[in-house]
């Protein structure tokens, strides 16, 4: 699914009006009725609905929602926040049709104290063109300070939030739900806005499919439909050689668990054969807990230069996953450098392997093209430097993926996957229960398994990120976000793979 900018959404609006064709006021009515329907499906008509409207089209939506809910016997209060002198035509048309008397607000102290019901925020939408400050910021603070039990529903966008740039300097409404039209907005997907958007509900409003199809954007969402199209069912005449041989280089004294989790996830993702390369202290643990994996050990407790020799001698590995629990010992760093000089196929690089690379940045140039890097935000910062906000970090992510011809998966609620062509995909699965030790090791295992069995890097990283999050969602559903651990993600992989065929 495409993510459009504010400008593109405006163009989609205009294209729909001209080519469906539909009048602008009827398109607003369609948007408002989608919201009113959602509200009536989720809140009883005994609730008073307090609707705050600006004077643009977002406010117009609010007025139309007010009328539609009033017609369904909701008690409705409308407050018009005088954000500007100018009102749009569709706002004015809906004001004329409003069956109740609105109250006007020109100062923050005029916000009523609301103790029951629900609040609808239709003050500002995608037309925001500067940070919210002054008395309007005061109005937003008043609304945000309403008692916790009063849900705030933002229409299209939480008022005050920029959708294409950072809103750190803007005062924003903090919504419990954002009822947004047709497409995800980029700002929703970045952590700086997590507290502002709340739960995102996408409501289709019939924007013209032709426009949505032909418009190009560097930002996309990985959804179930995309993943089903990427998935390749196994061939009926397959043998274990058909699905590749992966090498997983992982573990150090005290962190063999990371290697075990990664190895299990790799095997549960369909790899034909797996060899793990571990420090000798991990041998018994790996052979006992993952009997399906072959095991080669390094005599030291840290993985040393010897692992490069091993790869050099045995070129049969279809891919290599390196990093989980590895440690950053100097001998390991030397081994990694030698490995990068020798091995030229796409590989998966995670955790301490990334930390080593950030200590020796020259190694970035040695990483085979189309490899997959999976940093969390701190690792990303160590690798590529700090940025002043998350939109800038996103630009840097794209820039580095293009520069080094890599797939870089920046972990987060919506993990951002930047590709060598500069396109970014946001994963839509996963939950906070996955913020637990070992989740990343599981992801490395899945990605290594998919790459080894012949998926192209792009497919492997999109499919892998989605499956990882979906298995985490299934685990949380059954066990709770609190009680689930990383190993549970592996246990639910099968359930997700079963759902993939079209
Ligand atoms: N295609 C769709 O998805 C549809 C969207 N609809 C709704 O329309 C809004 C966008 O409406 P628009 O009129 O373009 O913009 P807003 O309502 O968000 O803003 C209106 C004016 O507010 C002023 N403004 C901007 N920033 C600030 C600020 N920081 N402080 C105060 N005022 C501000 C600005 O006017 P100025 O003259 O003051 O510059 C804006 O013009 C979209 O979000 C949907 O809700 C349609 O209803 C259906 C189709
Ligand atoms: K809004």
UniProtKB/TrEMBL annotation:
Keywords: ATP-binding, Isomerase, Lyase, Metal-binding, Multifunctional enzyme, NAD, NADP, Nucleotide-binding, Potassium
Residue sites binding (6S)-NADPHX per the record: 57-61, 125-131, 156, 258, 325, 376, 441
Boundaries of every YjeF N-terminal domain copy: 9-213
SUPFAM superfamilies: Ribokinase-like (SSF53613), YjeF N-terminal domain-like (SSF64153)
Positions in coiled-coil regions: none
Molecular-function GO term, any one: ATP binding
Cofactor binding notes: Binds 1 potassium ion per subunit.
Residue ranges of domain YjeF C-terminal in the record: 223-500
CDD domains: YXKO-related (cd01171)
Binding site for AMP: 411-415, 440
E.C. no: 4.2.1.136, 5.1.99.6
GO terms classed as biological process: metabolite repair; nicotinamide nucleotide metabolic process
Binding annotation for K(+): 58, 121, 159
Substrates-to-products reaction catalysed: (6R)-NADHX = (6S)-NADHX; (6S)-NADHX + ADP = AMP + phosphate + NADH + H(+); (6R)-NADPHX = (6S)-NADPHX; (6S)-NADPHX + ADP = AMP + phosphate + NADPH + H(+)
Family under the similarity heading: In the N-terminal section; belongs to the NnrE/AIBP family. Belongs to the NnrE/AIBP family.
Record-linked NCBIfam families: yjeF_cterm, yjeF_nterm
Protein's job: Bifunctional enzyme that catalyzes the epimerization of the S- and R-forms of NAD(P)HX and the dehydration of the S-form of NAD(P)HX at the expense of ADP, which is converted to AMP. This allows the repair of both epimers of NAD(P)HX, a damaged form of NAD(P)H that is a result of enzymatic or heat-dependent hydration. Catalyzes the epimerization of the S- and R-forms of NAD(P)HX, a damaged form of NAD(P)H that is a result of enzymatic or heat-dependent hydration. This is a prerequisite for the S-specific NAD(P)H-hydrate dehydratase to allow the repair of both epimers of NAD(P)HX.
Subunit record text: Homotetramer.
Protein name: Bifunctional NAD(P)H-hydrate repair enzyme
């Amino acid at each position: 699914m495409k993510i459009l900018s504010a400008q593109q959404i405006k163009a989609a609006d205009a294209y729909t009006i001209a080519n469906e064709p539909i009048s602008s006021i009827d398109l607003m009515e369609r948007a408002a009725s989608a919201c009113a329907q959602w509200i009536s499906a989720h809140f009883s008509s005994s609730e008073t609905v307090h609707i705050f409207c600006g004077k643009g089209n977002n406010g117009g939506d609010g007025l139309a929602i007010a009328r539609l809910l009033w017609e369904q016997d909701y008690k409705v209060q409308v407050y018009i926040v005088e954000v500007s002198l100018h009102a749009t035509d569709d706002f004015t048309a809906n004001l004329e049709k409003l069956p109740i008397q609105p109250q006007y607000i020109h100062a923050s102290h005029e916000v009523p104290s609301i103790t029951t019901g629900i609040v609808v925020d239709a003050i500002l939408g995608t037309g925001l063109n500067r940070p919210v400050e002054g008395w309007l910021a005061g109005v937003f603070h008043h609304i945000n300070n309403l008692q916790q039990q009063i849900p705030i529903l933002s229409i299209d966008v939480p008022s005050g939030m920029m959708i294409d740039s950072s809103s750190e300097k803007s005062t924003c409404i903090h919504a419990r739900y954002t009822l947004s039209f047709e497409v995800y907005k980029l700002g929703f997907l970045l952590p700086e806005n997590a507290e502002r958007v709340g739960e995102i509900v996408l409501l289709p409003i019939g924007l013209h499919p032709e426009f949505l199809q032909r418009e190009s954007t560097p930002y996309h969402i990985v959804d179930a439909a995309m993943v089903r199209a990427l998935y390749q069912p196994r061939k009926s005449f397959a043998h274990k050689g058909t699905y590749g041989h992966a090498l997983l280089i992982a573990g150090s004294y005290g962190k063999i668990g990371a290697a075990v989790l990664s190895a299990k996830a790799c095997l549960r993702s369909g790899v034909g054969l797996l060899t793990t390369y571990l420090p000798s202290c991990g041998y018994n643990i790996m052979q006992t807990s993952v009997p399906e994996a072959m095991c080669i050990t390094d005599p030291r407790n840290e993985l040393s230069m010897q692992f490069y020799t091993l790869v050099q001698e045995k070129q049969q590995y279809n891919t290599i996953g390196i990093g989980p629990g590895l440690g950053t010992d100097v001998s390991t760093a030397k081994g990694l450098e030698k490995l990068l000089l020798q091995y030229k196929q796409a590989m998966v690089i995670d955790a301490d392997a990334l930390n080593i690379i950030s200590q020796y940045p020259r190694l970035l140039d040695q990483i085979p093209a189309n490899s997959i890097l999976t940093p969390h935000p701190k690792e990303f910062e160590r690798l590529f430097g700090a940025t002043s906000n998350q939109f800038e970090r996103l630009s840097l992510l794209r820039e580095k993926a293009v520069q080094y011809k890599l797939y870089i998966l920046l972990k987060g609620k919506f993990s951002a996957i930047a590709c060598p062509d500069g396109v970014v995909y946001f994963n839509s699965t996963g939950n906070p229960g996955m913020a637990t030790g070992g989740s990343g090791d599981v992801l490395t295992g899945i990605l290594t398994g998919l790459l080894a069995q012949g998926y192209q890097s792009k497919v492997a990283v999109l499919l892998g990120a989605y499956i990882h999050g979906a298995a985490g969602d299934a685990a949380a559903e059954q066990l709770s976000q609190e009680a689930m651990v990383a190993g549970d993600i592996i246990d639910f992989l099968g359930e997700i793979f079963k759902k993939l065929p079209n």
